[in-house]
Structures are given as structure tokens and as C-alpha cells.
Amino acid sequence: MKYFKLFVFLFLFWMALSGDYTIRQVLSGLVASAMTILIYRWLLKHAKMEYPKGITLWQLIQYVYAVGLEIILAGYDHLLRIPFGSGETEIMNIHLEAKTELVASLIANAITLTPGSVTIELNQKRLKVLLYKDVYKREQLNKTHCFAMRLQKIFK
């Protein structure tokens, strides 16, 4: 059942991103989702790992929504920096209270996907993030920290 839920999620994600609902695209989505599940199961088996526990489908949907929205908003903010030549960077430490390493990794990856920030180190419950700071405001530091805390609340 857990793989079926993942299959459905992957297929719906495929369809939402493609925006094309022809028979060919639906079949491609079904095949791609099935292949992803098969490869995932094979990797788990050969690495002697288990299916990740503790993350529900609803949490995953909330995570994808939050990350997608943040990527769009941060991309817009980052585009506004280009004409002003803001190129200063700063390293920020973020303390996490994540329950598992998987949750901490998801938060670190979400920060890296967001334009203008890169997670350079994940050490137990601490993230070290390199980000562009706005010359005129220090809001970027607060935005990145708040984003990490919002993601953390999803998985509590």
C-alpha cells in the first residue's frame, strides 16, 4: 500500500508538471512512475534499507507546496537583486529540531533549491547555509530561517 500511495503521488506530480493530458502523456507518466517505484524498491533492497517511516503523504504534499511557493517567491526576490549588483554573501547557522535525518535532509535540500541560498553543511541538527544578503535589508537571513522553521513544523 505504501508503494501504491507513492506511485499515485508521483503520477499526479508528473501530470501537474507536464500540463499535457493527452493519452501519450498519461501513459508516459504511468510508465515513469512505475519505473521510479521499481528502481526505488531495488535500491532499498540492495542497500539493505527500509521504506522511510514517519512521513505521511499529507506531510509530503504540504512540503512540496511550501517548497514550490518558496522557490517562486525567492526567485522573484533574487531577480530584483540583479540590477543592483548585490553580490555579498553571508553564512548563517540554523538549528533544527528535526525528528529524523530524513527530515533534516529534506529541509536542507529545500533551502538549496531556493534561489539565493545553498546548504553547505548538515551536521546532526545544525545547517550551515550560504546565502546572498541584500545590501539594503537583512530580511534574507530572517526569510531563510523562517522558511526552515515552517518546513520543520510540517514534520512535527
Keywords:
3-stranded antiparallel sheet; alpha+beta; globular; 156 residues
Q: Quick summary of this structure?
A:
By secondary structure, this protein is an alpha+beta fold.
Describe the 3D structure:
This protein has 156 residues and is an alpha+beta fold. The chain has five helices and three strands, in the order H-H-H-E-H-E-E-H. The chain has a three-stranded antiparallel beta sheet with strand order 1-3-2, with helices on one face. Strand 2 and strand 3 (126-132) form a beta hairpin. The model has no long low-confidence stretch (mean pLDDT 83).
Question: How do the strands and helices of this protein lay out in sequence?
Answer:
Elements: H1 2-18, H2 23-46, H3 57-81, E1 89-95, H4 101-113, E2 117-123, E3 126-132, H5 139-154
Antiparallel strand pairs: 1-3, 2-3
Oligomer: single chain
How many strands? Answer: 3
Alpha-carbon distance between the termini?
A: 23 Å
Outline: globular
Strand order of the largest sheet: 1-3-2
